[in-house]
Design brief:
InterPro entries: GNK2 (IPR002902), GNK2_sf (IPR038408), Kinase-like_dom_sf (IPR011009), Prot_kinase_dom (IPR000719), Protein_kinase_ATP_BS (IPR017441), Ser-Thr/Tyr_kinase_cat_dom (IPR001245), Ser/Thr_kinase_AS (IPR008271). This protein is an alpha+beta fold. It has 18 helices and 25 strands. Helix 1 crosses helix 7 and helix 12 packs antiparallel against helix 14. It is globular.
Length: 669
């Protein structure tokens, strides 16, 4: 973790020496736990400074002075205050360890409030951790928000013997996972417990900021526990600390048992005798003392080095990969959740593999996407999909909960969406009766909002590239959630288009510039949305079909009826309850989205406005991208046949995919 603390170097009193230790150890992201409890950690953010005697400084000083006397009414170990307006608004949050008494907690918060203003004298955001409490202030909202940076590691200098290592590590992870579930469900967001391995007792605690929800706490601790492999697996003690949650384990009792202490499980049978007393312990003590002395000698020079240059940040992609790794599930847990991938739990199957329903130990239902071994997706592509989806947070996008990558198994674990995919409703002659006009309009707007988020509101511009009815899932309220980001591409916000030599997607939904030349942009997704919109209104798939003697697809059928003024032929009979003018307006919008000229297609921002404003004037559409199949010239037919690898019959009776596997390409080539 980068040491970003700033401030004038003063005389080395006890506080400044604390800062030196924090500065040095945070540079290497590892602190011997023998020092834990005596050396606080400070992180003075570099997001910006406030000026002396400014309103922000006055507000901050006011909050820090009154904070120790303002605990939460429901939890005396939790403090949260906010004061000021706009850019001068300050938010302060603090909480104590769940076993700390009220007086000790108040004293810890008071000392932290004083110390943090000394160590970070002008920063707009700062974070402090000591053994009994932690405090953070910022001009950003803090309550109910998960913050994962900075991350700090503390490690015990002693390692587990090689013969005991595997069992010890397994028990530590098992204990922490139990405590994670316990802490997330507790009002205090705190849990402690112990386990025994080969006569060695392990004590551990997990804690979240009390302002977090059960799900937020569980997610935060899951990511923190995922960091154990990077810091302290194999050590007999360690800590991973984040602003919103932390965990700690040691071979000695370091907490006071409370109501949230988890009863120990049955101890496993010992496989080796416990270590002897005497010389071994003396030797360990000598090793600890020597390590402390050596690191102390290096402190002054290390902090001078930090002042001489700005600490270099880790590459963004490395942090992203570590974020993804922190979401990893054990294969054994997923096998139990899905009843070993039984057919009874199968939700669906495609070229990528099979999706199963599962239930985790905490009772949460999940959807497990098990990629087939011959799907063509490598580990790099698999990691890319994780990196992308894990960052997306929107009500109309399916949320990724985690993944599993063990041996030949590659699994993605998503939130379970109970009503399945849109195609199971819209193309089913019986089920589509459940989709009245209001429901279909609601689904259309939700899909549009989800795509707009990908194009404009997420951190990077994201092109989905595989929008289709089977990738739209419906929750219990029939609200849509876009899924399957295996083929998505990331753009910089100022980038307008990209290209690829690998054409992968579903025929009928692909824009022609992508299908024939590999060019894609946000307008490619707009085209797919237009096709999807016509399918929602008509209840028909966009495939070739015979209309009397004429051969058509959905786009050409819609265009012909638009020109002939018989657009009612396109409307699903089940939509008789809907407003004809509104339904025709949606068809009009769909035709605008599938225009051949890419510059004439609207953006999703414009589509949202069109959907919500019936008074907004719509331009007249031009012909769709693909002409009716019966009029395709020989050159174009040859090119399309080569792309989609279809038979000589241009009109198949089912949806044809060029390649139905999930492949991610995060960075444009």
């Amino acid at each position: 973790m980068n040491c970003r603390a700033r401030g004038q170097i003063m005389a080395i009193d006890s506080l400044r020496l604390h800062f030196f230790f924090s500065c040095f150890f945070s540079l290497f992201k590892v602190v011997p736990s023998a020092l834990q409890g005596s050396i606080p950690f400070y992180d003075c953010s570099d997001i910006g400074n406030y000026t002396t005697n400014s309103t922000y400084q006055t507000n901050l000083r006011t909050l820090l002075s009154i904070l120790p006397s303002q605990p939460n009414e429901d939890n005396f170990r939790f403090y949260y205050l906010s004061f000021g307006q706009f850019q001068d608004k300050v938010n302060v949050i603090a909480f104590c360890r769940g076993d700390i008494a009220a007086d000790a907690c108040r004293s810890c918060v008071r000392a932290s409030a004083h110390n943090i203003s000394e160590v970070c004298p002008r920063e707009k955001e700062a974070f402090e951790y000591v053994d009994d409490c932690q405090l953070r202030y910022s001009n950003k909202t803090l309550f109910g928000v998960v913050e994962n940076e900075p991350t700090v590691y503390y490690t015990h200098p002693q390692f587990v013997s090689s013969s005991d290592g595997i069992q010890f590590n397994s028990e530590v992870e098992r204990l922490l996972k139990r405590l994670r579930i316990r802490a997330a469900s507790a009002d205090s967001k705190f849990a402690t417990g112990k386990a025994t391995v080969n006569s060695q007792t392990i004590y551990a605690l997990t804690q979240c900021s009390p302002g977090l929800s059960k799900q937020q706490c569980d997610d935060c601790l899951a990511m923190a526990i995922g960091e154990i492999r990077n810091c302290c697996l194999g050590n007999i003690g360690g800590t991973v600390l984040r602003p919103s949650c932390n965990f700690r384990f040691n071979p000695y009792m370091f907490y006071t048992p409370t109501a949230d202490t988890l009863p120990p499980e049955s101890s496993p049978p010992p496989v080796s005798p416990p270590p002897r007393e005497g010389k071994h312990h003396k030797k360990s003590a000598v090793i600890i003392v020597i390590s402390v002395v050596i690191t102390t000698i290096l402190i002054i020079s290390s902090c001078i080095f930090l002042r001489a240059r700005k600490t270099r940040r880790k590459p963004k992609n490395v942090n992203e990969i570590r974020l993804a790794e922190s979401l990893q599930f054990d294969l054994g847990i997923i096998r139990i959740a899905t009843d070993d991938f039984s057919d009874a739990n199968k939700l669906g199957q495609g070229g990528f593999g099979v999706v199963y329903k599962g239930r985790l130990f905490n009772g949460q239902d999940v959807a497990v996407k098990r990629l087939s071994r011959d799907s063509g997706q490598g580990n790099r592509e698999f990691e890319n999909e994780i990196l992308l989806v894990a960052k997306l947070q929107h009500r109309n996008l399916v949320r990724l909960l985690g993944f599993c990558l063990e041996g030949n198994e590659r699994l993605l674990i998503y939130e379970f969406v109970p009503n399945g995919s849109l195609d199971h409703f819209i193309f089913d002659p019986i089920k589509r009766a459940q989709l009245d006009w209001e429901t279909r309009y609601k689904i259309t707007r939700g899909i549009a909002r989800g795509i707009l988020y990908l194009h404009e509101d997420s951190q990077l511009r994201i092109i989905h590239r595989d929008l289709k009815a089977s990738n739209i899932l419906l929750d219990e309220e029939m609200s849509p959630k876009i899924s399957d980001f295996g083929m998505a591409r990331l753009f910089a916000m100022d980038q307008t288009q990209g290209e690829t030599s690998t054409i992968i997607g579903t025929y009928g939904y692909m824009a022609p510039e992508y299908a024939m030349h590999g060019h894609f942009s946000i307008k490619s997704d707009v085209f797919s949305f237009g096709v999807l919109l016509l399918e929602i209104i008509s209840g028909r798939k966009n495939i070739c079909f015979r209309n009397g003697k004429q051969v058509e697809n959905l786009m050409s059928f819609a265009w012909r009826n638009w020109e002939e003024g018989t657009i009612a032929n396109l409307i699903d009979p089940y939509l008789k309850d809907g407003s004809t003018s509104k339904i025709q307006r949606l068809i009009h919008i769909g035709l605008l989205c599938i225009q051949k000229n890419i510059t004439q297609r609207p953006t999703m921002a414009s589509v949202i406005i069109m959907l919500h404003s019936s008074s907004r004037h719509l331009q007249m559409p031009s012909p769709p991208a693909y002409p009716p199949p019966a009029t395709i010239d020989s050159n174009m037919a040859t090119e399309i046949n080569w792309i989609v690898n279809r038979s000589s019959d241009q009109c198949g009776s089912s949806e044809m995919s060029i390649n139905d596997v999930s492949i991610s390409e995060l960075y444009p080539r």
